[in-house]
Design goal:
The complex is a heterodimer of chains A (188) and B (753).
Chain A lengths: L16 E4 L2 E6 L2 E8 L4 H12 L9 E4 L2 E7 L2 E7 L6 H9 L3 E5 L4 E7 L3 H5 L15 E6 L2 E9 L3 E7 L3 H15 L1
Antiparallel strand pairs in A: 1-2, 2-8, 3-6, 3-7, 4-5, 5-6, 8-11, 9-10, 10-11
Chain B lengths: L9 E7 L3 E7 L14 E7 L3 E3 L3 E3 L12 E3 H11 L6 E6 L2 H12 L3 E7 L12 E3 L2 E6 L6 E5 L5 E5 L2 E5 L2 E3 L2 H4 L6 E3 L4 E3 L8 E3 L9 H18 L33 E3 L4 E2 H9 L5 H8 L12 H12 L3 H4 L13 H5 L11 E2 L3 H6 L2 E6 L2 E7 L7 H14 L2 E4 L4 E6 L3 H8 L12 E7 L5 E11 L2 E6 L4 H15 L6 E4 L4 E7 L3 H8 L16 E6 L3 E6 L8 E7 L3 H11 L6 E2 L2 H11 L31 H4 L10 E8 L11 E4 L11 E9 L4 E9 L8 E6 L4 E8 L9 H4 L1
Parallel strand pairs in B: 4-17, 6-13, 7-8, 7-13, 8-9, 20-22, 23-33
Antiparallel strand pairs in B: 1-2, 2-3, 5-14, 10-11, 11-12, 15-16, 18-19, 21-22, 23-29, 24-27, 24-28, 25-26, 26-27, 29-32, 30-31, 31-32, 34-37, 34-39, 35-36, 35-38, 36-37, 38-39
Helix pairs in contact in B: 1-2, 5-6, 5-7, 11-16
The chains are: A alpha+beta (188), B alpha+beta (753).
């Protein structure tokens, strides 16, 4: 039997890039994701084990942090999303589980999400048409949950006004992408 | 200043809690040929710590007979046209006023070279106007003209009438501060006698202050001064030091108004609200009909509604009502102000979405394949699912559906079932947790096994069903119905955080992460053997009914395999990471070619589950308990779980309780119609003789007739009985026979084979 060929969340074989004057919207499909949730009474052990793996402390609420191969962001009390390059960490969940053992529950999330990276000087102008977050007063390292055109997303700020990642549910990738390019086309 | 953003052509339409304002920016309405793809308007939500309202004021008219003739307008508008655009409605005009501002309008127009034939001032002591004849203590009592204003009739202070030929009349009855935004949170303005107007007062929205004409400071100088002072004060409250800049010199005259609202003379129509066609007489009628509260008067007459929002008309109406009631205007009071302040197109609230964009869609992992292979899609919540796959030559959906169902039962069918909710449940107390969530026991479920489970509401009613697969001692994957994926997840999260915070359990949704397919039918194992990598045992002994395990397919792709069946056939559900879902569908179809593998949609899925007697949302309809669907004994009495106690309620356990039964027509050609009620073969058709109702029905190609599921009183003991299925809405009566709900394989041999 032939090997199965992967599709992107937008249903193509290659990620899509949309260019606007002052903004590019790039579909990102080369990341692996795993959720990490500390078990009861194991919060400290989870933090220690995660730090050993990630090379940095697990981030505080509403923030993300990166070190080495890994990026992590806070999702809820004692709960984080971990992110790494897919080719290098295809089995990220298993890798994390090995690192944290019984201190935490780990669930593969790689294909649960789609991601679009927004880059360029016009990020504020486009994102303020789409979500309610006060991005103009935000800082690099913010990781927030919000509704973007009726789709629940994570919004990671990499450089205020310049660079953001939007992660939404994979099944709604087409709707999310449509919202992003429609708003960008309207503003730019 | 880089940190200040100016929004031109933008109107604040509402003031909401916590300093939030709504505003509409008009981006392209003034553009002759707007660019496609660009927004016409933007609806902004503005969060503020402090806001300074400088909304200005609106001039108000004076009502008099036949004041709706073209050419009669507010004096302020007339002046604006002359000063800003050098336009006048006529070269010969008159002004009707009760205040000094009206006189100033006249002076401006004279300065522009317009002939002002008369200044009609209701005040006996009105000061004179250079260049115009003044009629102090006079009123405009009527107008004439064929297609527009040609004459005004005035009654002078001495009581004589006089006709004056003019082509336009500017009316100025004073100014209403635009207090609306100060009142959107139920604030009430206060009456200021000196300017005969309501001004902001009392509980205005938090963080707001008001300057200029909106606060009753009408002159240009006062507007500049109070605006600057207000800004400095607001900044000071935010801890920013600022001082008032040097203000330019500006006019600083008083309005000097003597209130005059409507001319009492004349029997013709004197319009108060030209937008809603409300006259002085209409307000009198409202009073006569006892609609005397200002809120009632407004609704009886429509005064000040909609586009007007009371801006020009309300004061006139209040004045008429006050006079009729023998009260002062402040005693009559104002109506409640509500957003939006100006009319807003519904499209502005709708935003950029058009047609089907109004809500996001969710696409299954094999959507691309389905779209390329003749699928008709159906909305299931936000999901688009294949309903059936039309083949060349098929002219009716039933042909496609019958073919899909028959092919599955005779060989093998494939259905994308990704939409079912998947919840990853982990933790040392995961089994205890599920034991409390499900009505039946889960504590002792072996690793590598799947169990069907029922979830009850607290009141004992059954609200969802699904399976839980145990992949490790501390790891389960729960599936829910498509419709209840979010509800079940939310209930679990509530239970975990609030009911039993002491349990060590972590949950997260994985619905989207895995593409899952039902592979059903007698040839399903043969098909899977061609896909699943060789080192995994698929034999009945090695992987029996209700088994689950992690496998690999197509040369190493990670997958999860479940031996579960919704169709009643030997069946599996196979899951791969979502990115491989479309390819897996292709691979299954390619490998299944020799078996005639057939993709099936939700319609055939429904046919087969009715044939098997499996319940869905139609049966779990919010009124049925486990007992009613024939699964009463599944509710374990050896443990406590959500809803167990209430499922023992007397009312849910009567001897004649509604029980799930199968139904088929006595005449095979007749339909079973869902929603029909079940009545005795003869006798009255009435709610009191009602014996049950039909929840689901389909044409069963297997049985060769329409079949249905329904609830019948004491149904378990009534097999073979004949009943009428009545549908009074369409005058339909079908004789049906009560049969087992399991139309195929009641012993369950196929799915265990």
């Amino acid at each position: 039997m032939a090997k199965l060929k992967a599709l992107t969340p937008l249903g193509a074989y290659e990620p899509l890039v949309d260019e606007f004057s002052g903004l590019s919207i790039r579909e990102v499909t080369d990341r692996a994701l795993a959720s990490l949730a500390a078990r009861i009474g194991q919060e400290q052990a989870c933090a220690v084990a995660a730090k050993a793996l990630l090379g940095a402390d697990l981030p505080e609420p509403q923030t993300w942090a990166a070190a080495g191969d890994f990026t992590a962001w806070w999702m809820g009390p004692d709960q984080w999303m971990l992110d790494a390059e897919y080719a290098k960490h295809t089995l990220l969940a298993a890798e994390v589980k090995t690192a944290v053992g019984d201190a935490a529950s780990v669930t593969e999330q790689t294909d649960g999400w789609c991601r679009f990276d927004l880059e360029g000087p016009c990020c504020f102008d486009v994102l303020e048409r789409l979500c309610q977050l006060d991005l103009r007063s935000g800082a690099a390292g913010d990781a927030q949950r919000c509704s973007l055109e009726h789709v629940g997303v994570f919004l990671l700020c990499r450089a205020p006004g310049q660079s953001y990642s939007v992660l939404g549910p994979r099944s709604s990738a087409a709707s999310l992408h449509h919202a992003l390019v429609t708003a960008a086309g309207s503003v730019l | 200043m880089a940190n200040v953003r100016i929004l031109p052509r933008c109107t604040v339409i509402g003031s909401y809690d916590h300093g939030v304002y709504g505003a509409v920016e008009r981006l392209a309405d003034h553009v002759l040929a707007p660019e496609t793809g660009k927004a016409r308007q933007v609806l902004w939500r503005i969060y503020t710590k402090r806001a300074l309202l400088c909304a200005g004021s609106t001039e108000r008219p004076i009502a008099f007979e036949n004041n709706d003739r073209p050419g009669i307008m507010l004096a302020g508008s007339m002046r604006a046209y002359a000063n800003r655009w050098a336009v006048t409605p006529d070269q010969r005009i008159a002004v009707f006023t009760n205040n000094d501002d009206g006189r100033r309008r006249a002076a401006d127009l004279i300065a522009k070279g317009v002939e002002v034939a008369a200044v009609v001032d209701t005040r006996a002591d009105a000061p004179s106007v250079d260049g115009a004849e003044l009629f102090a203590g006079a009123q405009v009592v009527d107008t004439k003209g064929k297609l527009g204003l040609e004459w005004i009739t005035i009654r002078t202070a001495s009581g004589v009438t006089r006709d004056i030929p003019v082509g336009a009349l500017g009316v100025s009855g004073g100014w209403n501060p635009n207090v609306h935004l100060t009142c959107h949170q139920r604030g009430r303005p206060a009456w200021r006698e000196d300017i005969a107007a309501f001004v902001p007062a009392g509980d205005i929205p938090a963080g707001m202050s008001v300057a200029g004409a909106a606060n009753g400071a009408f002159s240009t100088a006062a507007a500049l001064r109070t605006g600057a002072e207000g800004a400095v004060a607001s900044l000071a409250e935010l801890g920013v030091d600022a001082k008032v800049a040097d203000l330019p010199e500006a006019e600083d005259a008083q309005v000097n108004i003597t209130p005059f609202w409507f001319v009492k003379e004349g029997k013709g129509r004197a319009w108060l609200d030209q937008q809603n066609d409300v006259t002085v007489k209409d307000v009198k009628l409202a009073h006569q009909e006892n609609f005397r509260s200002v809120e009632h008067m407004k609704r009886y007459t429509t005064l000040g509604m909609a586009t007007d929002q009371g801006k020009t008309s309300n004061m006139g109406g209040l004045a008429v009502m006050a006079e009729l009631a023998g009260k002062e205007i402040p005693q009559v009071g104002t109506t409640i102000f509500r957003p939006p302040y100006t009319p807003v197109a519904m499209g502005t609230f709708g935003g950029r979405s058009r047609g089907k964009e109004f809500r996001p869609t969710r696409l299954t992992p094999s959507h691309k394949w389905a779209a390329e292979n003749g699928a008709t899609f159906v909305e299931v919540g936000q999901w688009l699912r294949a309903q059936w796959y039309e083949k060349p030559g098929e002219t009716h959906w039933r042909q496609s559906v019958d073919r899909e169902a028959l092919a599955t039962r005779s060989s093998v069918g494939i259905c994308d079932v990704t939409t079912l909710g998947k919840i990853d449940v982990q933790g040392t107390d995961a089994a205890t947790f599920l034991n409390r969530i499900y009505a039946n026991a889960f504590g002792k479920l072996a690793v590598g096994k799947v169990r069907y489970g029922l979830m009850l509401r607290e009141d004992g009613i059954c609200y969802d069903d699904g399976t839980a697969a145990r992949f490790a001692e501390d790891h389960f994957v729960v599936t829910t119905t498509t419709a209840n994926a979010v509800t079940v997840y939310r209930n679990m999260e509530f239970a975990r955080q609030c009911l039993w915070p002491d349990l060590d359990v972590q949950i997260i949704s994985t619905t989207e992460a895995w593409a899952q397919f039902a592979v059903a039918g007698p040839k399903s194992r043969d098909l899977l053997r061609k896909i699943v990598d060789a080192d995994h045992d698929l034999s009945n002994e090695g992987f029996p009914f209700m088994g689950c395990k992690e496998i690999t397919v197509c040369g190493g792709t990670r997958a999860r395999l479940f031996r579960i069946s919704f169709s009643g056939e030997l069946a599996y559900e196979i899951a791969v990471p979502a990115r491989y879902g479309n390819a897996l569908m292709e691979a299954l179809m390619e490998a299944g070619e020799e078996f005639g593998a057939t993709p099936y949609g939700t319609e055939a899925l429904g046919v087969m589950r009715i044939e098997k007697g499996h319940v869905t949302g139609n049966e779990l309809n919010g009124t049925t308990a486990a007992l009613n669907i024939g699964l009463g004994r599944m509710v374990s009495q050896k443990k406590d779980s959500i809803g167990t106690v209430n499922s023992r309620r007397e009312g849910l356990n009567t001897d004649d309780a509604l029980m799930l039964v199968g139904l088929k027509p006595v005449e095979a050609s007749e339909p079973v119609v869902p929603g029909s009620h079940l009545m005795a073969e003869t006798g009255e058709v009435h709610a009191k003789t009602d014996q049950g109702y039909i929840t689901s029905a389909a044409f069963s190609p297997h049985v060769g007739s329409s079949i249905g599921l329904g609830f019948l009183k004491n149904g378990g003991a009534r097999m073979g009985e004949r009943l009428r299925a009545v549908n009074p809405l369409q005058n339909q009566e079908v004789l049906v026979e009560v049969v087992s709900a399991h139309f195929i394989d009641p012993e369950g041999e196929r799915l265990r084979g």
